[in-house]
Amino acid sequence: MTVPERRTRPLNRGRRFDLRATAMSFALLATALIAAGFAVRALAWSVQRRPVWGVVLLCVAVAVVLVRGRRRRRLSAARIARRAGEALEQATETALDVLDTPAPVPSAAPAPAGPHREETPRAAGAPGVPDYDALSPEEFEEAIAALCVRDGCTDVRVVGGAGDLGADVVALSPEGRRLVVQCKRYGDDNKVGSQDLQRFGGTCFTVHEADVALVVTTGDFTAPAEEYAGQCGIVCVNRRGLLAWSAGSAPAPWAAGAGGADA
User: pLDDT digits over 222-255, tens only?
Assistant: First the structure.
């Protein structure tokens, strides 16, 4: 009996393993990962300095993903690596350009001009009564000069300084009398004493030829100082009198004339 010959089905052999292609694929993948790392680092610096660039790049990435999803075609490993490398290279160049662009430096505000003895003091133009405690001694002299100008004095000059012999402000009153003013910017716990008045009294009339001598302070006077002022004809203006003069609720201190009364 003849047995029919049984045909055997040839075995389906798989593809031959290509070591060179596999090594090339891994090398391209490693290169892409390294480039991606540098790009991510550069983009991180870019986003930190320019947040708007992060939003732009995010939008571009989303658009690319959407386009790729619609196309739905497979790319070979070589084309993926090549295109990824090109995209990462462009992104890196953009990020480096952004990092190289210097950030705008805000313009510095102009420095305020320092006090000048010939200019109108800042306290003169302030509404109401100025804060005399916040002024320096030089600014206080300028503020007193401004009050004299406000109340009609002419030829007002700030002459305080080294060798002034007690005179800080000189002026002519509206009546034509010569005013000589000494300014004492003191605190509440520091009063003008009799020695201060004696030094001023020794020069205001004989040296400066004052018709009316004034001592203006942000503090107060001791009793011996007021007594000496009354004897010599020096007008004393303490803190209360200064504030009233500044507010316009009291007449100018030279209107009291020479009599030593506390203004």
Answer: 999 999 999 999 999 999 999 999 998 889 998 8
Rounded to whole angstroms, the Cα distance separating 7 from 191 reads 130
Which pLDDT band, with edges at 50, 70 and 90, does 152 fall under? very high
Enter the DSSP assignment of 237: E
Enumerate the β-bridge partners of residue 232. Answer: none
- Rounded to the nearest 5 degrees, what angle is found at the Cα of 261, between the Cα atoms of 216 and 165? 40
Q: Do 125 and 139 contact (CB within 8 A), yes or no?
A: no
Q: Give the pLDDT band (50/70/90) at residue 30.
A: confident
Helix (H, G, I), strand (E, B) or coil at 70: helix
Are β-strands 212-217 and 234-237 bridged in parallel, bridged antiparallel, or unpaired?
A: parallel
Tokens describing residue 240:
């209360």
**Up-side HSE of residue 116: CA atoms within 13 Å toward CB?**
5
Question: What is the distance in angstroms between the CA of the first residue and the CA of the last residue of the chain?
Answer: 153
Give the separation between CA 22 and CA 26, rounded to whole angstroms.
6
Domains in the chain with CATH codes: 21-100 (no CATH), 126-256 (3.40.1350.10)
pTM value is 0.50
Count of beta carbons in the 10 Å neighbourhood of residue 156: 18
Q: How far apart are CA 178 and CA 83, in angstroms?
A: 93
Measured between alpha carbons, how far is residue 117 from residues 143, 145, 162 in Å?
A: 10, 10, 14
Copy the structure tokens of residue 145: 């000069």
